Amino acid sequence: MAKIKHNNFLNTVNEVFTDAKEQGVLHLYAEGTNFTGRKIKVKQKDLFHFGTTGYLGLEQDMRLKEAAVDAIYKYGTQFPLSKSYISNPLYRELEEKMTQLYNAPIIITKNSTLGHLGAIPSAVDDGDAIILDHQVHWSVQSAANTLKTRSVPIEMIRHNNLDMLEDKIKKLSSKCKKIWYMVDGVYSMYGDVAPIDDLMKLCNKYSQLHLYIDDVHGMSWAGKRGTGYAFSKLKELPENILLFGTLSKTFGASGAVAVCTHKKRHHKIKTFGGPLTFSVQLEPASIAAAIASANIHLSPEIYMLQNELLERITLFNTLLADTDLPLVEENNSPVFYIGTGMPVTGYNFVNRLMSEGFFVNLGIFPAVPVKNTGIRVTISRHNQAEEIKGLVDAMVYHYPKALEDTHTTPNKVRMAFKLPILNEESKKKKAVEGIRIEYKQTIQDIDKDKWNKLMGKQGVFDWDGLLFLEKVFTKNEGYENNWKFHYIIIKDEANTPILATFFTYALSKDDMLAPVSVSTKLEDIRKDEPYYLTSYVLGMGSPFTEGKHLYVDKSHPQWKLAVKQMLDKIEELQHQCNSNWVVLRDFEDDEELSQLFHQQGFIKMMIPDSCQILDLYWNTMDEYPESLSTRSRKHFKKDIQPYEDRFEVVYNKEPDENQINQFYELYNNVNKNNIALNMFALPKKLFVMMSQHPNWEFLTLYLKEEFNIGKSHIPVGVMLCYKNLGATYTPAFIGMDYNYTKEHQVYRQLLYQTIKRATELGFKKIDFGMTASFEKKKVGATIIPKNAYIQAKDNFSLGLMSVMETTNN
């Protein structure tokens, strides 16, 4: 099985955050010697603060501050013991008050993240199952994923999709005791809420359904005694719900609270809840501040505070309603999200608002899809009416300027968020001065010599190769074998090409580069649902080709504008064909392109290395071993050369029908086995048309009869090779009979015979393609790391595959 490097998610996030940091909108430091909550000092400038999660402003309440200071003097800065041994004297009072607040048993935790890590593994038993809402907070997903080692099934549904939830419940109900659906009460990015009433109806319909609700963003500003949005809908907590609130954020102190009316479950979590047992307890200052806040929550004052905040929220909503700003979710929570689409637009907009004296947060991947970047505005009691009006005025003024600066439009943003389109926006496209884009849907409409000069001499995408692919991948039965081709050439005023590329629109498996454990599970599902978790992809190059699919003249002064024009055209095509993914691929490390692609809404990921012999400088195969390293030369003499005499090597240029059937069977063996690069099987029509094309040949290994008693002239390996303009020999696909592979070193012999054939034909380069880089390196290939840049309409399939990874169910 081919082994490939899978994308490191943390590396991807690191690159996204690093770019945002360099743009001055992330990882900032507050300045100054004091902080009031209304303003925050950044880069030597006082800004009105619209980024807090302390919505009621209790963190600045003198009663909380004085209680915290008094506790430090009495008990010290910390109480350095686990609560399993003994609790700080203040804990009992806090627990009593929080129990009174909820009128239900509670558990105090250090914070919500550690709380989830303690509660979820304790609450969810072996034999239970978990269903995650796609947008449930990362801390919940992370804690749930720890149960994979216990073989607890973990599923995921699209955000608030109750039909999908019910389907999952039906699927799991016969196999699992309890089914836990995990949600946020109020979601932290868009400010939307869980459909609590409808979820309770499902609980009544399915007794196995239990709810795990993380309502830390709904706390204090909503509900009776400030117990949160979810509790305000529930009124009281049934035994099949475990609720998390917070003592930080709006509550004004630190820590979190789990509320659980199921006596055995409550006892189990509190007695031994992982990090709840082994972690150091809350600091005395935090406990005392939480007690002071609890006293406010238990008094009528909490409703006065809630109403004051609601007045500000209502004002902000009223002002926004008179604008065309793309508010992603209309609600009455303190969280608002204004979409900007591309990250570069978000950077520009945030910096513009900071220059006007307003601090807001940037919403960025992985919290949202990259192309759903935006600003998160939070309203608190600290904000006064004049600065709320000032913020709206500043957004109205600067939003169109940020769009213009970054070459986008209001309707592009609205399409990214599926918001209503503005009628008044002109549909005429503004031409970029000095640049002309040429777009075609068949290679036949492009001059052959010009295309080959720009894109030829590599892979199977010279002019003839692309015409061949167009004919193969049309009028076929399977959706996956019908592609649409899009060719783009961008020229300057002198008609000089700056950029050239081609894209295909094709159905692809979402797990093509996912870990084998994920693809194995998905292929089991696809036995009944062949197109499960598949998507139409608008991808640079094609699923068939590998190589440098983008020609760009970086010496040209307008090359960056040309790249942006290409991306604009691709965005237009994406909307026309409704593809779920756009993929730019096969790039070597290039910081300028990487930054440009990211700012335009793409995230970088590693793909399998490219393997190429860049210079066949030897004249005969007798000279070939001297081109290898000492170690590879030993490999050649031990694992390749002694096996050569076992095979008859045939170069089939026009195989008959029986041979084509044999070759296709060998290819299917490899395709089914190579789940690490999980692709749809290619159609048999491809092999038939290869046999009729002068640029293709079938390099076939027949095991000699003395090594295969009773059988003669049976092919055990085949390499499908394309001859590109006399420059590059391209073994595009391989087929093998695995009954013979190990004993006779079939794969290694195919690699060697490919090199031998390319030498005989006078080629100077071999493009061995992706995967199996270790084996290809041993025969002299240069390993070239490659990257792709992807843009997804949403992160659902990525999230779903993440929860499937390494699960043992």
Automatic annotation (TrEMBL):
InterPro entries: Acyl_CoA_acyltransferase (IPR016181), Aminotransferase_I/II_large (IPR004839), AON_synthase_class-II (IPR050087), BioF2-like_GNAT_dom (IPR038740), PyrdxlP-dep_Trfase (IPR015424), PyrdxlP-dep_Trfase_major (IPR015421), PyrdxlP-dep_Trfase_small (IPR015422). GO terms for molecular function: acyltransferase activity; transaminase activity. It holds the Pfam family Aminotran_1_2. This is Bifunctional aminotransferase class I/II-fold pyridoxal phosphate-dependent enzyme/GNAT family N-acetyltransferase. Residues 47-386 form the Aminotransferase class I/classII large domain. Its cofactor is pyridoxal 5'-phosphate. It comes from the Bacteria. The keyword Acyltransferase applies. The lineage of its organism: Bacteria, Pseudomonadati, Bacteroidota, Flavobacteriia, Flavobacteriales. Keywords: Acyltransferase, Aminotransferase, Transferase. Its EC number is 2.3.1.-. Residues 632-774 form the BioF2-like acetyltransferase domain.
